[in-house]
């Protein structure tokens, strides 16, 4: 059995806690490796190494730091196939989708190469008589991030790239379900010239997370994962005086207006609903056609497309639309929710419950499901299923459809399909969701914009990547300076005011 490691002070380090977690190949259901689960002492050693290395890294000029990231981008491109294969083997997603996972992280690294520009402060000459005022953005010190299984390359990079570009050290606690790619990324960064200790990868579960939350030296915590854990990490991290940003779960609605091109909508929905087996926080899991006639046309177009979806292992190459879900427990949870939908009276138009893949009977495959006549009181509507299950909720008017998206507790992403600019504009202005697509099903902003939901999809204020990341990973210091010639008249005893 392969034993995975941590990555501390520039090398792979075996776990010492004696606790391990199984890492599966979701396509076969086999345990392919074990990852160590760090205890507080191991975390503490990683933090000590990071704290020792960080001041010199922060003092390195930002252009030199950016050059390390430039080289890192080149190395990721060199090793793209290897990274994608390792990612698919542990996560289950198809190879092109795994390469996309790496690519969307790489694009944030490219953005962070602009650190010298992004870190420039403000300067006011003669803010008062003989007084200049300037601000600078300084690194926080040792920062940390806790990431989910569903984007094991992209989300760690969304955190550690801006953190280290700003001059911080970063402790990454990846998902224990697919921990290999984060270690490979750390090795590539080291090959690119990152000093030892600046990116530490500590594998673990709740024990390591709690040690991060309570560690005095760690200044900030980024989290992406499910909402209950996001809420927990936010409250405990903030109570410990840390800067915390947490991104949680989702239930993304797509509003389908009667004037939309129904073929386009159906194509968009199969990709957005079933891609990566529905295990994306920006997946569309609810389609809301407006009017029964629109709903009938939509379901008629959708059903054959959903039935035709090809499910299989990543090793089948381009013949597969989506792969297995990540674990047996995830599969069980999805099928339980499907059952609850049937019991609650939703119409299961495409039934994937009996899906079985010959030769892969022990894999965690779940067939595609399509529900119609789902209502807002059902569990399959309220809960995040995180599997290949799309629910059609029929709305009688645009206002009803908008209200559904607005009333749902999650507010990560949403989309509207229409040919009418006025409706689209009204929707984008009024909906209380963080990322909106207009005739775009998965509106994930590019690296130079910011990513973040609203409502229970987020805890904290600043978004991920883009300019917000440079704010999150730095503190502003503002200096008011007057040189001796300005005070030769003697001290001032009343508060200075502008006249
Ligand atoms: P998860 O919440 O189970 O795990 C996320 C991380 O938290 C992992 O590193 C895990 O080890 C750790 N963790 C799990 N239980 C913990 C506990 N009790 N105490 C402390 N730490 C704990 O999430 P997941 O299943 O890995 O990922 C899927 C979820 O992530 C979905 O809800 C999805 O919507 C969400 N997600 C959100 C975004 C976003 O940007 N909003 C992006 C991707 C995924």
TrEMBL record:
Aldehyde dehydrogenase domain mapped to chain residues: 17-479
InterPro entries: Ald_DH/histidinol_DH (IPR016161), Ald_DH_C (IPR016163), Ald_DH_CS_CYS (IPR016160), Ald_DH_N (IPR016162), Aldehyde_DH_dom (IPR015590), MeMal-semiAld_DH (IPR010061)
Organism name: Paramylibacter ulvae
NCBIfam families per UniProt: MMSDH (TIGR01722)
CDD domains: ALDH_F6_MMSDH
Protein name: methylmalonate-semialdehyde dehydrogenase (CoA acylating)
Family annotation (Gene3D superfamilies): Aldehyde Dehydrogenase, Chain A, domain 1, Aldehyde Dehydrogenase, Chain A, domain 2
EC number: 1.2.1.27
Phylogenetic placement of the source organism: Bacteria, Pseudomonadati, Pseudomonadota, Alphaproteobacteria, Rhodobacterales
Pfam family of the protein (one): Aldedh
Keywords from the named record: NAD, Oxidoreductase
């Amino acid at each position: 059995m392969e034993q995975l490691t941590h990555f501390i002070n520039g090398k792979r380090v075996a776990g010492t806690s004696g606790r391990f977690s199984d890492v599966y190949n979701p396509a076969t259901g086999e345990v392919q490796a074990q990852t160590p689960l760090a205890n507080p002492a191991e975390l503490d050693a990683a933090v000590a190494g990071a704290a020792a290395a960080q001041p010199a890294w922060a003092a390195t000029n930002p252009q030199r730091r950016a050059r390390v990231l430039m080289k890192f981008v080149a190395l990721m491109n060199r090793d793209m196939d290897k990274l994608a294969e390792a990612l698919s083997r542990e996560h289950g997603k198809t190879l092109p989708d795994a390469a996309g996972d790496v690519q969307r992280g790489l694009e944030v690294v490219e953005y962070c190469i602009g650190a010298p520009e992004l870190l420039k402060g403000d300067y006011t000459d003669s803010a008062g008589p003989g007084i200049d005022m300037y601000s600078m953005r300084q690194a926080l010190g040792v920062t940390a991030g806790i990431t989910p299984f569903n984007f094991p390359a992209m989300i760690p990079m969304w955190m550690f790239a801006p953190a280290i570009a700003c001059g911080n050290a970063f402790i990454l606690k990846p998902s224990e379900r697919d921990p290999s790619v984060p270690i490979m990324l750390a090795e590539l960064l080291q090959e690119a010239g990152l000093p030892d200790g600046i990116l530490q990868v500590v594998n673990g579960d709740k024990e390591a997370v709690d040690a991060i939350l309570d560690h005095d030296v760690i200044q900030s915590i980024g989290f992406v994962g499910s909402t209950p854990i996001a809420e927990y990490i936010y409250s405990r991290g903030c109570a410990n005086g840390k800067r915390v940003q947490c991104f949680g779960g989702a239930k993304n609605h797509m509003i389908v207006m009667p004037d939309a091109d129904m073929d386009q909508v159906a194509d968009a929905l199969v990709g957005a609903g079933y891609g990566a087996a529905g295990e994306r926080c920006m997946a569309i899991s609810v389609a809301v056609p407006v009017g029964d006639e629109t709903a009938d046309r939509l379901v008629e177009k959708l059903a054959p497309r959903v039935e035709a979806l090809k499910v299989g292992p990543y090793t089948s190459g381009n013949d597969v639309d989506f792969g297995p879900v990540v674990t047996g427990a995830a599969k069980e949870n999805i099928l339980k929710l499907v059952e609850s939908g049937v019991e609650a009276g939703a119409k299961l138009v495409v039934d994937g419950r009996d899906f079985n893949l010959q030769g892969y009977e022990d894999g965690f495959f779940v067939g595609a499901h399509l529900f119609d006549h789902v209502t807002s009181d059902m569990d399959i509507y309220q809960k995040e299923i995180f599997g290949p299950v799309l629910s059609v909720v029929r709305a009688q008017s645009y206002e009803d459809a908008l209200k559904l998206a607005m009333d749902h507790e999650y507010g990560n992403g949403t989309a509207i399909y229409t040919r009418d600019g006025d409706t689209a504009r009204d929707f984008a202005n009024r909906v209380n969701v963080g990322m909106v697509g207009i005739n775009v099903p998965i509106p994930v902003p590019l690296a130079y914009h910011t990513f973040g939901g609203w409502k229970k999809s987020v805890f904290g204020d600043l978004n991920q990547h883009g300019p917000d990341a440079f704010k999150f990973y730095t503190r502003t210091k503002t200096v008011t300076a007057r040189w001796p010639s300005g005070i030769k008249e003697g001290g001032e005893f009343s508060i200075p005011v502008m006249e």
